Alanine dehydrogenase
Amino acid sequence: MITLGLIREGKVPADNRVALTPGQCKMLQKQFPQLTIKVQTCPTRCYTDKEYRMAGIEVVEDLSDCAILLGIKEVPVNQLLAEKTYLFFSHTKKKQAHNQVLLQTILKQHITLIDFECLEHSDGQRIIGFGFFAGVVGAHNGMMAYGNRTGSYQLERVFKQKSFRKLIHAYFGLKLPNIKIGVTGSGRVAHGIVEVMNLMGIIEVEKEEYRSRSFEYPVYVQLKGADLYAHKEEGSYNRDHFHEHPEQYRCLFPLYTSHTDILLNGVYWDQNLPRLFERESIQDSDFRISVISDITDDENGSVPINLGDQSIADPVYGVSRSNLEKTKPYQPGSIDVVAVGNLPNELPRDASRYFGEQLIKFVLPELLDGGSDIIDRATIVRNGVLTPAFAYLHDYATAGSITA
Ligand SMILES: NC(=O)c1ccc[n+]([C@@H]2O[C@H](COP(=O)([O-])OP(=O)(O)OC[C@H]3O[C@@H](n4cnc5c(N)ncnc54)[C@H](O)[C@@H]3O)[C@@H](O)[C@H]2O)c1
């Protein structure tokens, strides 16, 4: 018998997502007779205690009899239960300073940590994530900000729609001006952005057309790796080479800044990758972009005028073209930036259901049956010891003293 627990999210600000919906829990218990699922009581989760109870799932405070615990965000160290197996997004694999104590405590308490972010198919493709709904909400918010800025149309906030299905209805009858939208990226976030573009009836065009002509209707172009980056000397793009040597590449997005009204950014980015444009280039007279939804959302990252995170309640700020400083949104002489790190929380029920479906399809059978390479590769810590693939975290995991 295996008992699996869904923990209450403890990170502040509170996250209202969950790894499995009540219906998914019910279905799993049927499918795996050796499995019992318990849910830790929570007043703010997007699926209520009552919904779990109605699905026949036990709602409890104490999960100490569960062998496996599922969460979403980093678990506060004082809420970790020793010797359990945890699955959540730990954000420790890049030695993130703010989660060092978390990893140290996991080691000390002989916990096994399987990180959702590290669940990959054998070719390195990530298995599970919330990117699609981040793309949906981020694209919507970018379009909403442009409507607010120009007064040419109005879009309500996503969270007021309650579900993706209702959101889609909000797009029927939406009349957009003849704008040009640049969509960057090729992963889950980009898929979510493109979904919204298509639901809004915005036409996709080829990059040459996008740069060379105007249209009598709104259009978007999707720029993937080969469209965005070129080797500094050879001018070519090879995906594997680019991933290994990003510093040898330059970014081609500046070719699009004078043709684009809205940038919806969903690229993968880290410090070694070139930025989409330089900060000062927003001062150029032909820099046409007036709204950027930076869904990738790294401060001073792929979008160098990302000056930090906003909240779901207040998602937009301006950046002055003259002094590059933060302003109120929708000011003349500024560019509006939407930068929110927990976008899927605007559609938490849909995002949770989508996440749970991927978990059920690709992860839980592997976890419950045992002996899985996918699970092994995503295991950062086993019974309090770093696994060989994550031995590079040794210094990070042992430096300083543990305060928790
Ligand atoms: N704001 C939010 O709420 C939010 C939510 C989810 C994701 N995100 C961010 O959005 C970005 C994209 O996420 P996603 O879910 O689309 O990711 P993904 O894993 O689905 O796709 C990433 C894409 O980047 C490419 N890639 C992978 N490794 C790379 C490397 N080393 N160098 C260059 N390219 C590489 C892959 O080929 C893939 O096409 C990430 O930075 C993620 O952190 C933000």
About this structure: The mean pLDDT is 96. The longest strand covers residues 35-40. The chain has two domains: 2-111+348-398, 131-346. Residues 348-369 form the longest helix (22 residues).
